[in-house]
Specification:
The protein is mainly alpha-helical and 211 residues long. It contains 8 helices and no strands. The two termini are 33 Å apart.
């Protein structure tokens, strides 16, 4: 708890000092990616940054092809929401799946605003930068705390290595998708349910011009 509080506080101090957008988003992510050890946190940091970078590229490509056509834009949003929810169900890495979907969710309304495209691109990059900053701060705090408990950490790490060596063989391949990602209809059903709920939210708040 102390590590999480310190990380979130540091993120908000930097956010308010330099007036960086999406401060709440960065602070929340310090709570999500903080783990029981620096090694586990580093793994989640790496996954989160890669997922958000991929999501940012996906957003820019989608905007390039759909921004000037309202109908195409709506279809792109609905399709994207389905992909995001399907990924949450079908990918083996939940952090990567949610990371991809979260950046899309928080920037959808941004790209619908009547502001210069340059500002939309800038704020999308700031949303990614907030995540990267939260990851860096969280990892740094984890490393500092681990220095105070290095002896216990070494013992625990040795125990974890021994346990892992018994549970799985060396060089075990890591799968990106679940084995039944294409054959299990539950993944598609979950994607459709999530897409329907999120799309209805989008259509309602857009129609009523809610901020």
């Amino acid at each position: 708890v102390a590590r999480m509080v310190i990380c979130a506080t540091l993120v908000m101090i930097l956010t308010m000092t330099f007036r960086i957008p999406y401060g709440m988003h960065g602070a929340v992510f310090t709570l999500i990616i903080s783990r029981e050890s620096p090694r586990a946190t580093l793994k989640h940091v790496r996954t989160t940054v890669i997922a958000f970078a991929f999501s940012a590229v996906y957003i820019f490509i989608g905007a390039l092809f759909s921004l000037d056509d309202p109908t195409l834009r709506l279809l792109w949003i609905i399709g994207t929401l389905f992909i995001a929810f399907y990924a949450i169900s079908a990918l083996t890495n939940y952090v990567a799946a949610t990371g991809f979907g979260i950046l899309i969710a928080i920037t959808i309304s941004l790209w619908d605003m009547h502001v210069p495209v340059e500002l939309k691109v800038e704020n999308t990059l700031w949303a990614f930068a907030q995540t990267a900053m939260a990851c860096a701060i969280t990892l740094l705090v984890e490393l500092v705390f681990s220095g105070f408990r290095r002896g216990d950490a070494l013992k625990r790490s040795a125990a974890e290595r021994m346990a892992n060596s018994k549970l799985r063989p060396d060089n075990s391949p890591v799968r990106l998708f679940a084995r039944d990602a294409l054959s299990n209809s539950d993944h598609i059903k979950f994607g459709l349910r999530g897409c329907l709920a999120a799309s209805l939210c989008y259509i309602i708040y857009t129609s009523l011009a809610w901020p």
